[in-house]
Request: fold
Amino acid sequence: MVNISRRQLPEELLEKIYELFFQIFNKFETKQSFFTLMDDFFTPKEKILLAKRITIIYLLIKKIEQRNIADFLKVSTSTVCKYALLLENKDSEMVKIMEEIIKKEKIFDFIDNLLADFLIQPGLKIGHWDLYWQHRRKKERKQTYGM
Reply:
């Protein structure tokens, strides 16, 4: 649980703070610089909290059952329900970003499967049976868990 002071900030000041927050987090250019910035600003618990919230939204958009999400991420079902309600607002910027990521995933999966079908031909080259079964298990996991 995050603790916030009971004394509220004036709306104008809060808006300026959010602007500063945006300016700072808008400056990272690489994944590593982003992670360094996250380490500078957030405690390990806060980072886990943020990551779980984003993952809940991602899995809900992928139509994973709420109880499975709660079990998988070790969160309460009420937490998952809270974010399911957020998704009802289709104008949410987070929903748009997640849907874009999922579309890119589908394209990547399609290309990955296409290349695997052409390049992995069991029996023709040594070791291709291993690659074939690895790829097949990966596809089955994605279908089963929606990931």
The chain is about 75% helix and 0% strand.
